[in-house]
Amino acid sequence: MISRTLQQIADMLGSEAKQLNKEITIQGVSTDTRSIQQGSLFVPLIGDHYDGHAYADEAYSKGAAAVLWQDDHPNPPEGMPIIRVTDTLTALQQLAKAYRKQLPVRIVGITGSNGKTTTKDMVAAVLGSAFNVHKTKGNFNNHIGLPLTLLQLEETTQFAVLEMGMSGRGEIELLSDLAEPEAAIITMIGESHMLQLGSRDEIARAKAEILSGMPNGGLFVYNGDEPLIEQAFAERTVPTDLHRIRFGGAAGSNDLYPTSIRMNADGAYFQINSPGYPELYIPLLGTHNVVNALAAIAIGEAFGVTPQAIAAGLRSLQMTSMRIEKLTAASGLTVLNDAYNASPASMRAAIALTEQLSGFGRKFLVLGDMLELGEHEEQFHREIGALLTPDRVDYVFTFGRLGYFIAEEAEKTFSQSHARAFDNKEQLIAELTALTKADDIVLVKGSRGMRLEQVVNALLE
C-alpha cells in the first residue's frame, strides 16, 4: 500500500500539509472509519445522505495519521494533521493517479457487460503463476473503488488486474485515465445498463472508453463474436500501434478460440487453437467461462507466461463468490448459485449450462428479475421464458414482478405446475424444499437486488 510522508502526500495533491509534523508517514488510505488502520490517511467523502467530515475525529482516534479536509467545510479539526483540498473525491483520484505513476507496475484493465469479475480472477491466476499480482477485491471497480485499489498496490507489485464498472458514459474513461492500463479487455456487450444508455450500441461505446488511458503500443483483447466492439473501436481515437487480439467461441472471427470443450460436474476441460498447450481445465461451469478464459490466456501469452504456467494458473483459480458456485446440500441436492447478478446474456448462459449438465435427476430453474433493462424489460424477460423447453429442464420457478413474464411464456410449453411464478419468497422456498430430491440440480439466478441467495441458503440448510 502507499507509504509516503505527509509532505509527499501534500505535494502529490498540490496542497499544503498543516498542523504538526510533515514528516509523519502515511500507511494506506481509507474512506471508512470501520477499516481504519494505524497510520492511514482518512479521506472523508460526501454522499447524498452522509458526510465523512463528521467522522474525522473518530478516524483519528482509531489510528489515522492524517485527514483530508474539503475547503468548503468550516471548522477543520484541531490537533491532528490535515491536508486541505478543493474536493475530497477528486483528491482521492488524483492521489491514486500520482501514486500509480510512481510505480513500475503493469496494469490490465477489464470491462464488459458480463464476465468482468470472472475474467479478472482468471487473468490474475494466469499472471500470478509467474508474477507478483494484485487484483481488484470485491466490487471495488468504480470511481471510488478503483482509486482505493491503486493505493493498495505495493511497491513490489508487478501486475495489477483491475475491474472497471460503469452505469453511464464517461465513467470507464475516468477509470482508464486513472489506471493507464497497458492491456485492456472487453469481455462482451450485453443488455445491462439499457435503462441508462438506451441501446447496445451506446453500451459498446461506453465500454470502448477503456482505450482512452492506454499508452501507444498497448494490447487490446476483446470478444470477436461481438461486432459492436469493432464498430465502437472504429468510431474513436485509439492509441497508435495498438496490438489487437480477438477471442471467442467462433473460429472465423477470432484469433483465439476453443477447438473442443467437455464439461463435468466440477468444471470445464477444453483445448484451444494455439499450439503448445495441454488440455486446459478451469474449475468453473459453462461454455461462457471457457470463452472468458481465452482472454486470460491471451494476456498470459502477451506477457511471456508459458503454456504450462497458464494451464497451472487456470487450474488453481480462486473465484469471487456467487458466480455459478456449485454447492451440495446435506441432502445431496446440487445447487448452482448464480445469485450475484443477472442480465439477458448471463441468464441465457446459466440456463444453457444447466441444460448441458448430465448425471442428475431433475433440473429446476429458479429465476428472478433482471433489473435496469429500461423500457424493453418485459420483452427481455419474455424472451428468456420462450427459450425454455420441458425436454431440457423439468421445472421453472420465478420470483418477482418481471420474473412473472418468464413464467408466463414458459407455461405455454410446460405442463401444469411445472412453470410457476411466485411473489412470496417463503412460499417459493417451501415448494422447492418439498419437491427436490437428492439427485436433482437447482439453478438459482437473478439480479442482486432480488436477494435470491436466501433461496440458496434455505436449500442448503
TrEMBL record:
PANTHER family per the UniProt record, alphabetical: UDP-N-ACETYLMURAMOYL-TRIPEPTIDE--D-ALANYL-D-ALANINE LIGASE (PTHR43024)
Protein name, UniProt field: UDP-N-acetylmuramoyl-tripeptide--D-alanyl-D-alanine ligase
Organism, scientific name: Paenibacillus sp. SYP-B3998
Its job: Involved in cell wall formation. Catalyzes the final step in the synthesis of UDP-N-acetylmuramoyl-pentapeptide, the precursor of murein.
InterPro entries (alphabetical): Mur-like_cat_sf (IPR036565), Mur_ligase_C (IPR004101), Mur_ligase_C_dom_sf (IPR036615), Mur_ligase_cen (IPR013221), Mur_ligase_N (IPR000713), MurCDEF_CellWall_CoF430Synth (IPR051046), MurE/MurF_N (IPR035911), UDP-N-AcMur_synth (IPR005863)
Lineage: Bacteria, Bacillati, Bacillota, Bacilli, Bacillales
Residues the entry annotates as binding ATP: G112, S113, N114, G115, K116, T117, T118
Main location: cytoplasm
A Gene Ontology cellular-component term: cytoplasm
GO biological process: cell division; cell wall organization; peptidoglycan biosynthetic process; regulation of cell shape
Record family assignment: Belongs to the MurCDEF family. MurF subfamily.
